[in-house]
Specification:
Bound molecules: 2-acetamido-2-deoxy-beta-D-glucopyranose
Structural class: mainly beta
Number of helices: 5
Number of strands: 27
Strand content: 35-45%
Helix content: 10-25%
Oligomer: single chain
Distance between the termini: 46 Å
Number of domains: 3
CATH architecture of the largest domain: 3 Solenoid
Radius of gyration: 26 Å
CATH class of the largest domain: Mainly Beta
Length: about 475
């Protein structure tokens, strides 16, 4: 009795019992069991948590990198659809290499990739259904007809999350790039993730590699968060745009790192007469804390397909390295539409061809039926608080003769030119606006207002609805592994 009352003895007994239990557990469950015990559940942040869950393995998934999992993914999601109105569901993709063709998402659903899970996109065209061109484009980008549906596709959905602890989606794009270069494509190349006609979408904490074409394409959708995504593709790969919000309202793109063969973020809204007829703008877009390397394209491109209009874009805390241009506005006669109320501040650029580029002479038409009287309106474009070094040319600003781009405001910008810089750092035609505290001295079309107007260019003080969306901490329980 004396002995058991001694706290030291009690502790020793407890430790011995614990060790015995652990030994028995190890004998019956092995090291795997111990690992599972250690990760009884895990947590992640999402716009909504789910009541039900399953693992891809429950549906016959095989993560050997050779077996196709297209049917397993679709069977899993079709099964989990039943929980849409009962707390929603999450599909766990365990460690492994999961070869798959395209599959479709459902509402109130989370796709979660373990950090050692790699989705390998099939290179077999039969694994990719062909869908119609986007109505606002009238045709596919690579070929006149339809387009291969994206690897992860969602249509008419609400409340969808694609996330993980930095799991990987590998598009295995090399074969597609080769077919593109050789003109062997019957249909437009697939994207990695496309979400159409949907709302309340989160794409976060993932690594996307080698997409056949664009990486993330939300289109005709609203309330979209893209956060903490790493996107990597060879800088020479064709059309591997990072994130393309297209005819979307209320989008937030933040904390992304993108190295690609095309624009890191390309804001779009349809093409020529098709985009004008569809008439759906991209508006209320926030881009922040983006790091981009895009030697042949832009960090943020607006257009060239902007025929439904682009309005209220707010970008800040952007780092551009070895990129062709910082912000680029691309449009053409025949596009119609508008690009207005664009605000960019706090951008650091290193090794750039042009810090700023805008052109009304981009060409690139869907077909010859575009309306030559459809003149795009470009107005209220604000750039401020920026530094750039090793820049070949400060700016190339080319409006449309007779229809100038107006309300351009550039302030507190210091551009250090490269030793092999162009002799004329600014080339401006058919543009109007002001500047203040900009080095080197801007062109005459952007007259200097003096240093007291250093804060002249606006950045909105209010916040957009997408900034008020809260993420919650969700738990994934071991019983679903
Ligand atoms: C799919 O859902 C049903 C419930 O409707 C369930 O009984 C079944 O086990 C599920 N299928 C798989 C493979 O888990
Ligand atoms: C996904 O949805 C699209 C559009 O409805 C359809 O064409 C395609 O066949 C679906 N994919 C699968 C794997 O069912
Ligand atoms: C999506 O919704 C539209 C409009 O309601 C409908 O015409 C279309 O068939 C739906 N597509 C799918 C695949 O659910
Ligand atoms: C994202 O993934 C990283 C790396 O695995 C993990 O540490 C982090 O908690 C995840 N973040 C969120 C918000 O889930
Ligand atoms: C995710 O993985 C990529 C590629 O390995 C890496 O560069 C990035 O830092 C990782 N992100 C996080 C949050 O761990
Ligand atoms: C400056 O830019 C040129 C390309 O225009 C590049 O070759 C050179 O390495 C850069 N220099 C520095 C110091 O980054
Ligand atoms: C000018 O821009 C720099 C960043 O490039 C910023 O640190 C500074 O506060 C800005 N100055 C004013 C007066 O806004
Ligand atoms: C300036 O831009 C105009 C229109 O793009 C072009 O025609 C002209 O050659 C450029 N001038 C210089 C000096 O680069």
């Amino acid at each position: 009795m004396e002995l058991l009352n001694n706290p030291r003895t009690t502790q020793v007994i407890a430790e011995v019992v614990l060790a015995l239990v652990l030994l028995v557990f190890l004998n019956t469950n092995g090291v795997e069991g111990l690992k599972a015990l250690a990760s009884d559940s895990f947590e992640y942040r999402a716009i909504s948590c789910r009541a039900h869950g399953a693992s891809l393995k429950d549906f016959g998934g095989v993560g050997d990198g050779i077996t196709s999992n297209t049917k397993a993914f679709q069977a899993a999601i079709d099964n989990l659809t039943q929980y849409a109105s009962d707390g929603g569901s999450q599909l766990f993709v365990p460690p492994g290499k999961w070869l798959t063709g395209s599959f479709n998402l459902t509402s109130h659903f989370t796709l979660y990739l373990h950090k050692d899970a790699v989705l390998l996109a099939s290179q077999d065209e039969n694994e990719w259904p062909v869908i119609d061109p986007l109505p606002s484009y009238g045709r596919g980008r690579d070929a006149a007809g339809g387009r291969f549906v994206s690897l992860i596709f969602g249509i008419n959905l609400t409340d969808v999350v694609i996330t993980g602890d930095n799991g990987t989606i590998d598009g295995q794009g090399a074969l597609w790039w080769e077919k593109f270069h050789k003109g062997q494509l019957k249909y437009t190349r697939p994207y990695l993730i496309e979400i159409m006609y949907s709302e309340n979408v989160q794409i976060s904490n993932l690594t996307l590699l080698n997409s056949p074409s664009w990486n993330i394409h939300p289109v005709y959708s609203s309330n979209i968060i893209v956060q903490g995504v790493t996107i990597l593709a060879p800088v020479t790969s064709p059309n591997t745009d990072g994130i393309n919000p297209d005819s979307c309202t209320n989008t937030r793109i933040e904390d992304c790192y993108i190295v690609s063969g095309d624009d890191c973020v390309a804001v779009k809204s349809g093409w020529d007469e098709y985009g004008i007829a569809y008439g759906m703008p991209t508006k209320q877009l926030v881009i922040r804390r983006l790091t981009c390397i895009s030697p042949f394209s832009a960090v943020i491109a607006l257009g060239s397909e902007m025929s439904g209009g682009i309005q209220d874009v707010r970008a800040e805390d952007i780092v551009a390295i070895n990129s062709e241009s910082g912000v680029r506005i691309k449009t053409a006669v025949g596009r119609g539409g508008f690009v207005k109320d664009i605000y960019v501040r706090g951008m650091t650029m290193k090794t750039m061809k042009w810090a700023f580029w805008m052109t009304g002479n981009y060409g690139s038409h869907a077909d010859n039926n575009y309306d030559p009287n459809a003149i795009p309106v470009i107005q209220n474009i604000n750039y401020h608080d920026m530094v750039a070094e090793n820049v070949t040319m400060a700016a190339r600003l080319e409006g449309i003769p007779g229809y100038p781009f107006t309300g351009i405001c550039i302030s507190n910008v210091t551009i250090e030119l490269a030793s092999k810089a162009k002799k004329v750092p600014w080339n401006c035609t058919d543009v109007a606006g002001i500047s203040s505290s900009v080095v080197p001295q801007p062109c005459e079309l952007l007259p200097d207002q003096g240093p007291e107007k250093r804060t002249a260019c606006n950045f909105p003080e209010d916040s957009l609805p997408i900034d008020n969306v809260q993420v919650q901490m969700c738990t994934y329980n071991r019983k679903y592994f």
